[in-house]
Design a protein that fits this description.
Helix content is 25%, strand content 28%. The chain is α+β, with helices and mostly antiparallel strands. The protein has 2 domains: 2-62 and 150-168, no CATH class; 70-139, Double Stranded RNA Binding Domain. The strands form 3 sheets. It has a 4-stranded mixed sheet, with no helix packed on it.
């Protein structure tokens, strides 16, 4: 939650709520979009504004952290290619590692031993997974900002009034 400080008081500018229960998803879906409240703010009683708009969006469930477990990786031995002298194309020392949950594939043929290439391919997969996590976080931040930018004042899907937030026709 972020807090704003204007005019001497503090109030949240963003709130993340978890709604639980049998009808929680239906309750949340009906409130997605711009919601309007007509009334005097208890946080800013001297403010002249009477119409307040709030943007509501569903947040994704927290992603399960995808650890790089050995049982999730398929290794395949193959012949190395490229320059390398007599060793190349005679032994299956190169390794292709496939991470089954994500479908990411990394190959290693830099070392002469299959065991060393296997470790290197696993390391490359770990790097790829970290890059993917970072990209997903950046995409989520951009998406949240876009939702914030799409707040449409005057186009409310639900309108509430008064201190008890009674629903009015939208």
């Amino acid at each position: 939650m972020r807090a704003s400080r204007r005019g001497g008081g503090e109030w949240p500018s963003s709130v993340l709520l978890r709604i639980a229960g049998e009808a929680a998803s239906a309750f949340a879906v009906r409130r997605i979009g711009t919601n309007q409240w007509i009334g005097t703010s208890p946080f800013r009683p001297a403010h002249k504004r009477r119409n307040w708009c709030v943007g509501v969006a569903l947040a994704p469930e927290p992603e399960t952290i995808c650890d790089l477990r050995e049982e999730d990786i398929d290794y395949q031995a193959m012949r190395a290619s490229g320059p390398g002298g007599q060793h190349v194309n005679k032994t299956d020392s190169a390794v292709r590692a496939t991470h089954r949950p994500t479908g990411l594939v990394a190959t290693a043929q830099e070392q002469r031993s299959q065991h060393a290439n296997r470790k290197l391919a696993r390391l490359k997969l770990a790097i790829m997974l970290e890059e993917r996590r970072g990209q997903a976080k950046d995409d989520q931040r951009r998406s949240e900002w876009q939702v914030h930018q799409e707040l449409e004042r005057g186009n409310a899907i639900r309108v509430y009034a008064g201190e008890r937030f009674q629903l009015r026709s939208a």
